């Protein structure tokens, strides 16, 4: 039996286009989050809008892992660019993700390290990363594969960007990815995070986010759609 692919975003803009194109849908709610199963371009999927932040993202990812027979999880959405080479609309495909706001430094742990745990950096699945890169190439979209930094903070400050870059070397920052990645790791589910840049995480980020979130979400949606189409072409 073909297993389902979980597609997740934090906000309506990030999942609206997916939900709009699904057929044969049925929905149910768990942990206050609506999960919609159905077909997207012929592929069985379950889509949810988890809400903003790491707790919402982790709760939704755990429901997906526990209650749906999912083969993989793809997160789609927008992010603030940290790498100065990235422009608004460019895509970041996660190679791995880290919680930049995990901070037990008074106990002697480096920032980003989850105390008393062997893993704090969560790698994306190489096959899904490759599929995402191929989808970007097929769409002719500028992309970078790199580290995603997640935290419960909307970053809108040039100095904070410099500090995050220096400490963690991330390509972009957002508020859910590493939480989802950790839950996927805990449940043995392959994942990848796809993010289109809505802003540059600087002083202009709030206005940029308001202006470009819809277009950037559509760009990320296009890449995820392309991934599922490429995958369908390769299925035996
Ligand atoms: N999502 C989109 N832009 C962001 C930013 N600058 N900081 C955190 N999350 C974001």
* Number of distinct helices: 6
CATH-defined fold name: Rossmann fold
Share of residues in strands: 25-35%
What is the top-level CATH class? Alpha Beta
List the strand order in the largest sheet: 5-9-8-6-10
| CATH architecture group name | 3-Layer(aba) Sandwich
What is the assigned CATH homologous superfamily?
Answer: Nucleoside phosphorylase domain
Q: Largest sheet at a glance?
A: 5 strands, mixed, barrel
Radius of gyration: 17 Å
Helix/strand/pairing category: alpha/beta
The residue fraction in helices comes out at 25-40%
Outline the structure in words:
This protein has 236 residues and is an alpha/beta fold. It has a single domain, classed as 3-Layer(aba) Sandwich (Rossmann fold). The chain has helices spanning 12-21, 54-67, 126-139, 158-168, 177-187, 205-234; strands at 4-9, 23-30, 33-40, 43-49, 70-81, 91-99, 121-123, 143-150, 172-174, 191-199. Strands 5-9-8-6-10 form a five-stranded mixed β-barrel, surrounded by five helices. α1 runs parallel beside α6 (205-234) and α2 (54-67) runs parallel beside α5 (177-187). The longest helix is centred in the last third of the chain and has 30 residues, at 205-234. The protein is globular, with a radius of gyration of 17 Å. The relative contact order is 0.21. The mean pLDDT is 97. It binds adenine. Adenine binds at residues 78-80, 154-156, 173-175, 198-199, 201, 205, 209.
Structure summarized in a few sentences:
The protein is α/β, with parallel strands linked by helices. It has helices at residues 12-21, 54-67, 126-139, 158-168, 177-187, 205-234, and strands spanning 4-9, 23-30, 33-40, 43-49, 70-81, 91-99, 121-123, 143-150, 172-174, 191-199. The longest helix is centred in the last third of the chain and has 30 residues, at 205-234.
């Amino acid at each position: 039996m073909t297993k389902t692919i979980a597609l997740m975003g934090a906000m309506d803009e990030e999942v609206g286009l997916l939900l709009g194109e699904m057929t044969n849908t049925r929905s149910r709610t768990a942990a206050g989050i609506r999960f919609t199963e159905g077909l997207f371009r012929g592929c069985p999927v379950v889509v949810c809008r988890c809400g903003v932040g790491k707790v919402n993202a982790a709760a939704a990812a755990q429901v997906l892992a526990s209650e749906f027979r999912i083969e993989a999880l793809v997160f789609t959405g927008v992010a603030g660019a940290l790498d100065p080479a990235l422009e608004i609309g460019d895509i970041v495909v996660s190679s791995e993700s880290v919680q930049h706001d995990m901070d037990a430094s008074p106990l002697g742990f480096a920032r980003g390290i989850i105390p008393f745990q062997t893993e704090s950096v969560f790698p994306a699945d190489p096959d899904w990363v490759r599929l995402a890169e191929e989808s970007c190439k097929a769409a002719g979209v500028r992309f970078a594969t790199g580290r995603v930094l997640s935290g419960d903070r909307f970053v809108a400050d040039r100095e904070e960007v410099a500090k995050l870059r220096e400490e963690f070397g991330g390509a972009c920052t957002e508020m859910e990815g590493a939480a989802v990645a950790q839950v996927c790791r805990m449940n043995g589910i392959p994942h990848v995070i796809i993010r289109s840049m809505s802003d540059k995480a600087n002083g202009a980020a709030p206005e940029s986010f308001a202006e470009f979130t819809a277009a950037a979400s559509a760009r990320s949606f296009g890449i995820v759609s392309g991934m599922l189409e490429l995958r369908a072409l390769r299925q035996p």
